[in-house]
Amino acid sequence: MSRGVETMFERLLPHMRVNTIYDINLHTLKEQGKRGIITDLDNTLVGAREPLATPELVQWLDDVRDNLGFKVVIVSNNNQTRVGKFAEPLNIPFVHAARKPAGRAFTRALNELGLSAEQTVVIGDQMMTDVLGGRRMGLFTILVRPIAPNDEGIMTRFNRFLERIALSRLRKKGLWPEEELKKS
User: Is 54 left (phi over 0), alpha (psi -120 to 50) or beta?
Assistant: First the structure.
């Protein structure tokens, strides 16, 4: 296998894996100089068919922003109607139709945050979009388990297929631990 292909697979490796956003140690991230969060929406914050934030998510976002001082922006490949209806009541800026893993949306999000890549983390549920896009931009990447995988659309299902192939290669190379995170 050529080194270029190796690098591609390695770019799918998140810096951190957690079950949910609630498992992220934000205090540690803050101690590491992180000040901003770029987060995916569907299957990261809520299920893909959930129109609004849950009370638990509202509390987490309030804590993230008000108590810990993080700036937050949502970057989603979904359309403006979906992302806007979710983000606007929470007073969170967003980038819709992001075309992740392309860098343009991540650049827009960093500009919105007013932070550098080194100060920012990206949280998402997909290796092919969130992790790859974040790593290409020099962001600290956090992969969460998808909240409601049965609600995913055709493109996400295709990405999951590609992820399974990539995971197989990463495991063979010893780059992805065999043990999976336990479902909560």
Answer: beta
The answer to whether 14 and 141 have CB atoms below 8 angstroms apart is yes
pLDDT, tens only, 132-152? 999 999 999 999 999 876 776
Q: Whole-prediction pTM value?
A: 0.85
> Which residue type occupies 145?
R
DSSP 48-63: TT--S--HHHHHHHHI
Cβ(44)–Cβ(134) below 8 Å? no
Residue position matching structure tokens 């569907």: 42
The structure tokens listed for 73 are 């922006």
Residue 117, both tokens:
């890549």
* Residue the block writes with tokens 């989603």: 76
